[in-house]
Amino acid sequence: MRAVAAVLAAVLAVGAALPRPGLLPHGPARGDARLRPGDDESSPAVPLRRALRLYGRTARRLYVGTNGVISTQDFPRETQYVDDDFPTDFPVIAPFLADLDTSGDRGNIYYRQDDSLDLLDQAVGYIQAGFPRTAGSFVPTNAFVATWENVGAYQELSQDTEPSTKLNTFQTVIAYSDEDTYTIFLYPDGGLQFLGTRPKESYNVQLELPARVGFSWGDGDDPKRDGLFHSLASSEQALRNLERESNTGIPGVWVFRVGSVDHVEPGGSEGLGPGVPHSLPVHPDPDYTRTLYSHADHASTELPAQHPSHGSRTPVLLGFVPERRDAQERSRRLYPDGDGDTRQSYSANPSSYSSGHHGVGVEEDVHFNPDVFTYSASSRETCAQHHGRCSPHAFCTDYATGFCCHCRATFYGNGRQCLPEGAVHRLNGKVSGSLTVGRASVRFQDVDLHAYIVGSDGRAYTAISGVPQPAARALLPLLPVGGLFAWLFALEEPGSENGFSVTGAEFTQSLEVTFYPGGETVQVTQTAEGLGPDNYLSLKTHIQGEVPFLPENVTVHVTPYKELYYYSSSAVTSSGQREYVVAAGTANQTLSYRLRQNITFSGCSHSRLPARQQLSVARAFALYDGQEHVLRYALAARVGSAQDGAGNPAVNPCHDGTHGCEAPAHCQPGAGMEYTCECPAGYRRDGRGCRDVDECAEGLSRCGPFTVCLNVPGSHRCECRGGYRPAGDGQACVPLAPASDPCEDGRHPCAPGGRARCLSRGDGRPSCECLPGYTGDGIHCSDVDECAENPCHPAATCYNTPGSFTCRCQPGYEGDGFRCTYAAGGNPQRLTPCQHEQMYPREVPPGRYRPLQCHGSTGHCWCVDAAGQEIAGTRTAPGTTPPRCGGPEPTERPPSMCERWRQSLLEHYGGSPRGDQYVPQCDPQGHFTPLQCHGDSGYCWCVDESGREIQGTRSEPGTAPPCLPSVAPPTVRPSPRPDVSPPTTGTFLLYAQGQQIGYLPLNGTRLQKEAAKTLLSLHGSIVVGIDYDCREKMIYWTDVAGRTISRVSLEPGAEPETIINSGLISPEGLAVDHLRRAMFWTDSGLDRIERARLDGSERRVLFDTELVNPRAIAVDPVRGNLYWTDWNREAPKIETSTVNGANRRVLVHTDIGLPNGLTFDPFSKLLCWADAGTKHLECTFPDGTGRRVIQNNLNYPFSIISYANHFYHTDWRRDGVIAVNKDTGSFTDEYLPEQRSHLYGITAVYPYCPGARK
User: CA–CA separation, 696 vs 600, rounded Å?
Assistant: First the structure.
């Protein structure tokens, strides 16, 4: 203790963190062994002189690893744990788990056993500073000391890089006796110079995973304990606090009790023990509970942690989650429901939302009408619609008549609310009453009720303050008020369930007690209203009736008892006779009362509840403190199977399901065995059943003017007529106000219509673009002289026209101006190979022609035969896919209707149509493609086999109708590559995983994990950014290993094509603009944002200034806006500009850390991002307003995409794809590929073109 006092005095003197002398003595002079230098080394097994207890198990040897860990078993390869989140597959004590490296004399790692008195004295001083009451008698017999001194992070070195000078020093001490074990983490001042390490698989993608600090149970013999862990820090902010904060009062010193089988107990948490608290505070000191590092059994609760005041008697709640955002941590064992922002958390090995629990698919609703509003719905509910009602710690299961929620392993509850097994819980409530006590009437309103539950052994303490005398004394025998909580949280015997496992946190208890011999009767109603912040259960209690008078200075004793509970799908009943002894001095009187109680709840009809169970109350007491005016009950109970021969009283038919009510009628219990059948709103009685009320036909609807009433079972809905929209009151409809469009009303600065076009951005501001054939900024456009580029045949003359040009063959030649042949005697002259070589520079020597020929200036392409002559019907227009040449010469066929019409319009447009002029799209067989679009205006429609528009299919810009092929596809297709599996139709996700692109189909929004597969293998590549061109059905990706950008068609047999292979260093984010036929990408090596055509041409730099680490990029094609993230650690930001690079500005620059993923949702028109620093998923409007957090407990996201009502992101801790519901923010599913490696980019592939793309 003297050593600790000296250290503490030094700390207080300078007001800083733990000085280096504060570390326990270590090094060769103390006999330490030294771990051999390296990147992934492990010490030999260290046999302990005396066995220690760790996590309830006996450990006889320890291992020390390079990567900041100690274990009771040898380590696996670091790739199996160093980048992953807790829990680990093996037991771990982790003072700083990261990819560390001591190669090249970069630090030392020392370890030893020690039983010297000076070291044990210093260790016990730290322990007693963290546990001043409970560790006062702790005398350690042995210690194990491991010290990481000036160790570095793993770093890939090259000739151009120098080793980092940032080094870390920290120490772990395990002090133990035969009875208990404590662990001390010590972080000296300046000891943590780096907070994370780069994954080895990240290549030149700049990423850093924060270290993890805490404890993990690992796999063991008890499956209920597998995967438990306790996390102290895993975010940068929490890691920074390790030196400055403490749970002992000494900065940089952290103490934990680790011998227990159930949980890790941190220092500074005393007051949470199993004993009865001295008092139950109504309002704990908010500053204390916010700053004291608190812990939940098997919890993950992060820093910040402050210096606790050990004199305080205010207990800190187990399971308390600090308000700091960076203190959100995932835990399989416990993650409290928390505040309103905490919607969902992962389990360590989650039972996925869809996998193995239900087989009901969710299909996309293509008939959604945004102008419909509904008062109620009567239809079968499914997990896909309502899984947000489940607890974050539950999974959802679909059944034939509905869905149910079930708590995951290590949690208990009814699925809608789940609590961690064995943890301490709080209940808060208000009590009101109107009682007749003897001859006196007593009323009280909203007095406080608090209950304290120790779930590990089934003890419940209840305190009601403020009940006036004499009612408070008279309520002493009314133990069932506190007995409700004993039943709710009773210790469960094998195969049994306590009350909370059945009812959850929403139920109503109706209790009737009749006292004997006086016959006084009192009714108690207790209504639970759900879990509040920090998992507090909230309830209201009302007491009314008569109770016997009890004089002052009497005590009431209740003998232990057993009580039978009977269960149905929505009710629990019990009844019994209780005796109690009223003692006054030496005089005792035994009295009794009879009770009957019903507990009703909304249960799952598919849960298998026991018919009956027995509650055994081993200890019970009641007392009234006259000075504090507090009425207290305390019970210790366990629930188990009912003993044979136990009575079975009659149960009301409503409770056991034997009633005759027919759905949708509800059974309402009456007195005794009586009941009535009651109909819900929207129905009328019809015998024992109900029939629907047609509110529309009977004039009972609330539909207002300009609406159409539609009857639905149990209700009705109102739809607006065409040209109207719902009014603000949700009942009437008002005419649609025409949106002000400056492009339509002429209020725009664009050049005249013949030179430029105006594009509406949706925000009232126009965007101007010059038409093809003109150049400028859209406001000023000048004609391009195409003839200067010699686009015509050498035997033709070029004539420049405004916005275009024409080519005419010279006299004596025939052709379209792009191809002219000499007409000698009326017969066109065939060119010799020499002449052809002069005109078309695509000859392959010696004397052979490439099958595909293209005109370098005009972009026209065609196939030629062996003599170099064009093959009829193969010519394609500029900007379209070139024909496939080189196979067997196509048999001559006459041009189809589509081809003739296309050729006619091309001639009419002078061979170069503008972007807003319609040209029919034909497939290679000459048929009309099912989807036709008007240039690049965005207007599209479906056609039949004759090219006629199908009525009702024309769409607005940004959305394309789903069109069915009018002609059966050919049955013979090219053979696919052996490493490519072509996808099926429908919406699916594509994700980048190292050297491959994976395919993950969706059923509605649910991940079809069983159908996932590798779509494309790219050996030697590292794919990072990925996107999809919905028009040409092409995948585009960036490759940081090959420093290229490539693409491939989704057609079977397609080969990848590299389109950009120079001028790149670290191409990461990629976005495709399907309307402008352009792509955009970020390069974090060059700190650039660039743009090019989809074939790689017309490449140009948009921005190369004020960028540090540009990563994600997204485009809104309809509005022509570009967005990107820059995770510059000094000043991270999200920026925007137009797709042409104009109007650059910062959208978001506050409260962001590492914005890795970015997506533009084309349906909600929201810009959303996933931040690996703040762990938030957030959205904002394109102008930066309306920012809101969707989910605040992400792990380590990399890329994100939006589809329907879900986000899907890749995660580097889970190495998988995670699904997040947009509306609730809850995690709904995850897919973990069998091959474990980091996932990078992700995109969604639609069967049509949406309004905008990621």
Answer: 35
Torsion, Cα of 1160, 1166, 1167, 1169 (10° steps): -100
Residues 194, 231, single domain; the answer is: yes
**Do residue 1132 and residue 1106 come from a single domain?**
yes
Tokens of 976: 């696919």
1208 and 1074 in a common domain? yes
Q: How far is CA 1173 from CA 47, 236, 301, 1195, in A?
A: 41, 8, 17, 9
The neighbouring-strand residues paired with 453 are 425, 460
Q: Can you count the helices (H) and strands (E) in the chain?
A: 12, 82
Contact indicator for 1036, 1072 with CB cutoff of 8 Å: yes
What domain range includes position 933? 918-963
Q: Is residue 338 part of a domain?
A: no
Q: How far is CA 181 from CA 135, 214, 233, 808, 933, in A?
A: 11, 15, 21, 95, 73
Q: 3-class DSSP state for residue 622?
A: strand
Whether 1066 is in a domain gets the answer: yes
- What is the edge-to-edge ordering of all strands in the sheet holding 1121-1126? 1110-1116, 1121-1126, 1133-1138, 1145-1148
Q: Per-residue pLDDT tens for 72-125?
A: 988 887 877 888 878 888 889 999 999 999 988 889 999 999 999 999 999 999
pTM confidence score: 0.42
Based on the fold, state whether residues 1146 and 1048 are members of the same structural domain. Answer: yes
Same domain, 32 and 145: yes
How many whole angstroms separate alpha carbon 889 and alpha carbon 849?
14
**CATH number where 958 lies:** 4.10.800.10
Residue 405 forms part of a structural domain: yes
Amino acid at 423: A
Each residue's pLDDT tens digit, 113-171: 999 999 999 999 999 999 988 888 899 999 999 999 999 998 876 666 778 889 999 99
pLDDT mean across residues, the chain: 78
**CB-based contacts of 748-756 (< 8 A; 24+ apart in sequence):** 749/779, 750/778, 750/779, 751/776, 751/778, 751/779, 751/780, 751/781, 754/802, 754/803, 755/781, 755/783, 755/802, 755/803, 756/781
Sheet of 1206-1211, strand order = 1197-1203, 1206-1211, 1216-1221, 1227-1231
Total domains, the chain: 6
